[in-house]
Amino acid sequence: MADWVQTQAGPNAMTLCIGRWEVRLVPHGWVYVPDFGIRKAEEGVVPSNVTVGQDTLLAGDKLSLYLDAQLTMMRNTFQDPAIAGPMPAEFAGADEAMLLMVKHRPLNGMTVVQVQTYVRAAKWIGVITLTTLEQELLKVRPDFERFSKALVILPEAGVA
After folding, report:
1. Which value, in Å, is the radius of gyration of the alpha carbons in the chain?
2. Which residue, among 123, 88, 85, 128, has the nearest Cα to 103 in the 3D structure?
3. Are residues 22 and 152 in contact, defined by beta-carbon separation less than 8 angstroms?
4. Backbone angles phi, psi at 141, to 5 degrees
5. Predicted structure pTM score
6. Per-residue model confidence as pLDDT tens digits over 65-120
């Protein structure tokens, strides 16, 4: 059995889209959640998930400006977050991409890790965020990487 499920099976296959993101595969053991992303389908553990979102760059043409605002928000939202990055990343179809990792402890005392990839195509910002417990990170990271690499940025509406 394959370790992932390809969502495209032919010219009449249903396309899974979240905004300008096209989801082309869902790793085995994960389920697609419309308008959200994917969630690990496993009993008895806090589920890992990958959200796929988007935003618009309001000022300038640099992803760093957007990330500065995101980092400020994280520092004000999480108690003593450990932040690694941002560091440059590669993403097909993007003008630039950055990777960021955040580790924090929510109220229940478990350590949560978020791995975030930010991509910019013109003024469009795409955000892919893996959220998982620290002890699950090494287990789910390969699926996150395969899922992310298979995502496609669709053209803007009305742009050929």
Report:
1. 16
2. 85
3. yes
4. -60, -40
5. 0.85
6. 899 889 988 888 887 889 998 999 999 999 999 999 999 887 677 889 999 999 99
